[in-house]
Backbone:
């Protein structure tokens, strides 16, 4: 690894690898980690960003109310699907397919229903949490395949950085219990080590499982060979779909020609009332007391062939990606019917499902989801401290030169813009959601444009301000923007925090609490920066020449007499 070709030990070579694998794409990895952490609350973010839904409060009659509404909205549909409110969703998300509709999403129509009245709601156009989720693995404004390749390559470097970091720090677990404040480089290393070890299993699993999710893009050759380049056939078979063979029987029985069969089919399609769903829900709740019913699907509604399928609100196994069990009922009589058996899952598919479900948090109950979120926050702090350490370790070199090299200055600017700037841009994204007119055409795109505009300004800002001051100003802006979001929610038509807590609207209340937690975290950084500057000794300020004082200030370090000696120590 050495430029001069001299041999070095494993730990020394791993230290070089750890440093540069973490720095080269460190800013992108930070953005991926930050937005991926927020994506654990993707559904809650989307709910909050549609304040028109905040007055939707479910009760015991919500399911029946939703089905009654569908009879008026889509009486001739071939199927209805209702996603019922839960702790992550306040309203009913309805979808249906008309006879002869195109296959897949193109033929699916959607609407949102008030859980308390069954009325159709018109929420504002927004990408919501889906934008942050998509950005964290395919970026934006480029072909998706390119974005996923870039993120996949960065994720591989992240895995290399984690493994090489464990090898480099032979006392990493003992260092976890050590923190030496106001010791310059040593303090930053202590913080980096502590955050790395605290959630090390999470970091390893989330990084490796992310690579597994991108496996078909990063390593597509096996699929291309086995399916002769037809990736659609691979994914269709992966989902358990099979193309019907000519003359094969369909789900409703064998195909038979003749006037008699057509007459019988017409007789079965005569309008028939749907059985009340209440007894079906009671039977399902008795079988699924922990998760309850998550969704209702009605096939052939309004006909004698109608069936009602209830799906559990959560699963007990990750082998099938956390999918719940199902119960099938006759839609006319309400009597139970045998549900089709689930297809067997091969062990390679089961392994992939487990890793994917762990990465996406499909198994997570509210408490576990918060633990995943906190682990993600620790991971972002780990990435941030690692990039700051790169600057701090080079302060002695800058003091000897009496100036800041252009490369070091570039890293400083990118650190501020990528770390603090991303927080400001994310908070601004939520503010744009409320400040832009609800009826604005293409408003979801304007929300995203606002996000990137603010982020670009945050990248320019540290070019015009002293380094420490740029950190303080952007962190202060992020603190205020995050802290005021619950107030903005109530003032712009959403539910106040006290109201959402009283009505058990946990998706809305959870978002507000998450924003207050982020405000507290950024506020602590502002307080720490202000305190470290105020506690600097006059002797230290006098001992450093003006040019070198600027370099010391650029390192985010309190200029104390012991700092120079501490920074020159090797980890």
Residues:
């Amino acid at each position: 690894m050495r430029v001069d070709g001299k041999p070095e030990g494993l730990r020394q070579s791993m230290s070089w690898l750890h440093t540069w694998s973490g720095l080269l794409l460190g800013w992108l990895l930070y953005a991926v980690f930050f937005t991926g952490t927020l994506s654990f609350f993707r559904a809650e973010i989307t709910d909050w960003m549609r304040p028109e839904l905040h007055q939707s409060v479910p009760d015991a009659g919500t399911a029946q109310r939703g089905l009654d509404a569908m009879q008026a909205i889509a009486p001739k549909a071939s199927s209805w699907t209702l996603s019922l409110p839960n702790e992550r969703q306040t309203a009913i998300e309805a979808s249906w397919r008309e006879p002869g509709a195109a296959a897949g999403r193109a033929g699916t129509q959607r609407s949102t229903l008030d859980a308390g009245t069954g009325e159709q709601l018109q929420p504002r156009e927004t990408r919501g949490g889906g934008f942050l989720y998509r950005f964290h693995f395919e970026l934006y404004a480029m072909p998706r395949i390119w974005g996923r390749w870039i993120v996949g390559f960065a994720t591989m470097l992240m895995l290399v950085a984690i493994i090489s970091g464990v090898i480099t720090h032979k006392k990493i677990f003992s260092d976890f219990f050590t923190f030496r404040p106001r010791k310059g480089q040593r303090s930053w290393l202590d913080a980096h080590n502590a955050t790395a070890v605290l959630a090390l299993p999470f970091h390893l699993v989330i990084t490796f499982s992310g690579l597994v999710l991108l496996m078909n893009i990063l390593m597509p050759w096996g699929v291309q060979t086995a399916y002769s380049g037809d990736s659609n056939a691979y994914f269709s078979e992966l989902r358990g779909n099979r193309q019907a063979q000519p003359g094969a029987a369909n789900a409703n029985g064998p195909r038979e020609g003749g006037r008699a069969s057509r007459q019988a089919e017409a007789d079965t399609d005569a309008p028939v009332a749907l059985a009340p769903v209440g007894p079906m829900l009671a039977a399902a709740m008795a079988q699924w007391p922990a998760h309850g019913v998550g969704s209702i699907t009605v096939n052939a509604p309004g006909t004698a062939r109608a069936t009602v399928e209830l799906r559990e609100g959560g699963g007990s196994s990750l082998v099938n990606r956390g999918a719940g069990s199902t119960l099938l009922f006759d839609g006319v009589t309400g009597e139970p019917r045998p549900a089709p058996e689930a297809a067997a899952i091969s062990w390679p598919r089961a392994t992939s499902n487990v890793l994917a479900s762990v990465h996406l948090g499909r198994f997570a109950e509210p408490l576990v989801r918060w633990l995943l979120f906190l682990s993600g926050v620790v991971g972002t702090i780990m990435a941030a401290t690692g990039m700051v350490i790169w600057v701090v370790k080079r302060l002695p070199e800058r003091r000897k030169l009496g100036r800041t090299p252009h490369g070091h200055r570039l890293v400083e600017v990118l650190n501020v813009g990528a770390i603090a700037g991303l927080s400001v841009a994310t908070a601004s994204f939520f503010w744009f959601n409320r400040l832009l007119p609800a009826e604005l055409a293409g408003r979801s795109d304007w929300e995203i444009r606002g996000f990137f505009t603010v982020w670009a300004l945050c990248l320019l800002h540290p070019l015009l301000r002293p380094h420490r001051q740029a950190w303080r100003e952007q962190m202060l802006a992020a603190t205020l923007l995050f802290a005021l979001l619950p107030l903005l929610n109530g003032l712009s038509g959403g539910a106040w925090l006290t109201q959402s807590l009283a009505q058990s609207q946990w998706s809305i209340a959870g978002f507000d609490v998450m924003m207050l937690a982020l405000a507290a975290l950024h506020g602590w950084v502002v307080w720490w920066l202000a305190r470290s500057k105020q506690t600097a000794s006059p002797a230290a300020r006098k001992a450093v020449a003006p040019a070198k004082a600027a370099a010391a200030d650029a390192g985010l370090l309190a200029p104390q007499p012991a700092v120079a000696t501490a920074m020159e120590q090797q980890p």
About this structure: Residues 406-435 form the longest helix (30 residues). The CA atoms of residues 18 and 161 lie 5 Å apart. Residues 242-267, 536-571 have pLDDT under 50 and may be disordered. The chain is about 60% helix and 5% strand.
